[in-house]
Amino acid sequence: MSEKRRDNKNRIFRTGESQRKDGKYAYKYINNLGKIQFVYAWKLVPTDRTPNGKKDDISLREKIVQIEKDLNDNINPIGGQMTVKELYERHIKYKSNVRLGTNTVRRHLMKTLEQDKLGGLSIDKVKVSDAKDWVLRMKEKGYAYGTIKNYRRSLLACFYTAVREDYVRKNPFSFDFSTVIEDTTIKKQALTKEQEESLLTFIRKDTVYKKYHDDIVVLLGTGLRISELCGLTLNDIDFENRLINIDHQLLACGKKYIAPPKTKNGIRQYL
């Protein structure tokens, strides 16, 4: 019967465990792709002390528990090593049928990830605290609440993809956003009748703004978006039946272009 292998404290090693000459422990295993992998730790069990001058970390056997769970859950070890930026690139690659404005927002988020340390983290290393810290950094940099919320929603969707693909087990962006930063957006208030009349009186008399009087009247009477108003043509107005048809808008994103409303509900008529 072969002699059992032991560490320098006379503890018996389990299968795959060993100890190097410098005292560091190692574990050898085969990942889900059939490749040999090694993990290392200065402690064999949680109660061991980390040697002086060495970086503290979880013990080897704690790491082995995580590895075995990943193997049993068929977590993809290669996918988990891609960065957050690479995950976002992969995510939007398969959702390419979007509007020009959406592509612009995507470029802005991509640039943000390139400039922030979150973008360079491996997705299997991103924790909820990392995601929350990113939200706070965005706020400190002056990003608006709505922008941060939209970016976080995009990254939440990215990590859902990563979970479905077995790259990671949990979604670090799945947290209550309102507990991290407060919504400081000033809510819009509709003008009163008196305020509307005061505004129109001013516009009628002002030499600069009076040319916009009719536009303002239409906006106040219909609640059209500015892009919808700018896209109006005579063909969209039925003077006989007193109708305004809305089925397109004029947008600008580097260049001006006509686009349909964002949703089907955006196609409507006003009396």
Automatic annotation (TrEMBL):
* UniProt cross-references to Pfam families, sorted A to Z: Integrase_DNA (PF02920), Phage_integrase (PF00589)
One GO process term, biological-process aspect: DNA recombination
Q: Which residues form the Core-binding (CB) domain?
A: 82-163
All copies of the Tyr recombinase domain together span 186-271
Q: In the UniProt record, does the keyword DNA-binding occur?
A: yes
The record's keywords, sorted A to Z, are: DNA integration, DNA recombination, DNA-binding
A Gene Ontology molecular function term for this protein is: integrase activity
UniProt key word DNA-binding: yes
Write out the similarity annotation: Belongs to the 'phage' integrase family.
Protein name (database record): Tyr recombinase domain-containing protein
